Request: fold
Amino acid sequence: MELSLLFEKSVLILILTAITLGIATYLTYGERKVAAFLQDRLGPNRAGIYGIFQPLADAGKMFFKEELIPRNAEKWLFIMGPGLAMVTACITSAVIPWGTDLVLFGRNISLQVADVDIGILYIMGIVSVGVYGIMIGGWASNNKYSLYGAIRASSQMISYELSMGLALIAIIMMSGSLSLREIVDQQSGWHGMKWNILFQPLGFILFFTCALAETNRAPFDLPECETELIGGYHTEYSSMKLGFYLFAEYINMFVSSAVMSIVYLGGYNFPFMDAAWFSTHPNWLGAISVAVMFAKVSFFIFLFMWIRWTLPRFRYDQLMHLGWKSLIPLALINMLLTGLGMLLWGK
Amino acid sequence: MPELSKIPWPFLILSFISILCALYVVTSNSPIRSVLALILTFFSISAHYVMLNAQFLAIVNLIVYAGAIMVLFLFVLMLLNLNKETEPLKSNKWLIGAAVSAGLLLLVFTASIQTSSEHIMRHPEAGTGLVKSLGKVLFTDYLVPFELSGILFLAAMVGAVMLGKRDAANESDTEITGREEV
Reply:
């Protein structure tokens, strides 16, 4: 029993890692195609049909480029930076429930690596630790532009973590649980349409804004603002180390889209999932729920890219004013309103 | 003292890592490296909490110490740009003071371990450190200390804002020069 559970979880982790890396690879392609679509261009179309092999060509190029480590850099920390960024990006997906349980070989297989009691806090913890990869890499490069980029990134992430946490507190107040699985299951009412976004529209907007800032995406991509800082924290990086930093950003985007789908958009719940036919066909339910989950994630990813190619970048003081003087008070008001609503209308 | 063979091996490995990292914190010459080692120490302490089935404490330890306080430490050190050459030499007075205070802390810890009952040490009840039970205890048995510490935090926050604010005399200066606080 113990051994089969271990095997099951290992297989799940392997599949999940493969999917995460594969999706991150193809997000680079997706980003260029979306950019081309929004700017009325064609985008990459040389490698394979519709340029479908473009990410593979890019990865090949990354691997075979010359690798440079600046002479005055702290060698070990310089190497550690991108590794840390990658590790923290990859381990977040461990607590995310991807679908309802499958029944295979007479066993219930949960599509979640670890259903821990504190799922949301785990994600917040990893997010807060995620800043080290950028900070260490930027500092170890021994370059003032890298250092500026790193400092911008970390102060931005610390500032926006606060309102992110405050927006989540309203959700936790409603659900009364920190486990992501329970938060998803509580949204399955009303034939699978009782999504938290209906009760928490303000919280959703706050969380989405903070997620943009946490993943260093436009309009919050100050850390790699090329007009002022050359390339920001990864100015000195080349070859696959640079690739790791860029890759980690796409993985973060994927994972934060998954978290938003779970917390606000009902996760794997879909309309009429409580139909009688599904209770006798659990595997069909599981397959459709996974597909629905990924559809929601792709929607969020498209939203991320859409915003990147639509909005100009903030100035740094505007970024700080927005974080501290608008988002945090709004998040506090949202908390108050949630408490009031729960008091007046019950749950 | 339990025999060495009875101690579970994950505990041994974790303790080895945490002690090693903690030693590196005090022996390393580079301040940045010692902060990074301190972060590793916090991670291994969190792992100890997980082994005691205190998931909430583990993750809060990570969020507060590794995620917030150490980031600020690293921040300051990076901006100061300290390195081996510029690090000021500390006199023996500091060394003795640090040793005495660390020794006193060790004394308090050993005393508290000795007085805590054997039961808690050997069998951490399943779910003691989980959010639900912790919250229940905080809001029933320890409500007054909990509220008091809340007030303490509020006071500390207000104090930090007051310290961070420039006084009135300087403020007029900044208005003239037009500098803006970011």
Q: What stands out?
A: Strands of chain A lie at 102-104, 107-109.
